[in-house]
Amino acid sequence: RMDALISMRATGTPDDFARKMRIRRSTLFQHIQELKVAGVDIRYSYISQTYYYADDRRIRIEFEKPGSHNTGAKTYEEKEKKNLSLS
User: CA 29, CA 85: separation in Å to the nearest integer?
Assistant: First the structure.
């Protein structure tokens, strides 16, 4: 949900965003800070009153069941190399 709201530039103010996410404002700031530390360039526009991605990166989380081996799955390093070569 967070990714969708940021991508659509539909977060609103931090108070609005926290309300949409059903979390406290302080928790929202913690999540945003963690994403920034991870390399996601998230910024806030005071004019548009929304958070937005400053580059083409997106948040993508994948889950895999323990013990399942997806032979088509690529390692994180392979995906990152591909993403960097496309930039």
Answer: 31
- pTM value is 0.67
What is the rounded radius of gyration, in angstroms, for the C-alpha atoms of the chain? 16
Lookup: tokens for 7: 């991508």
CA 23 to CA 33: how far, in whole Å? 15
* Residue 51 bridge partners (DSSP): 44
Chain segment 9-26, per-residue pLDDT in tens: 999 999 999 999 999 999
pLDDT-based confidence at residue 85 (cuts at 50, 70, 90): very low
Task: Report how far apart, in Å, the C-alpha atoms of 79 and of each of 22, 31, 61, 62 are.
Answer: 32, 23, 13, 12
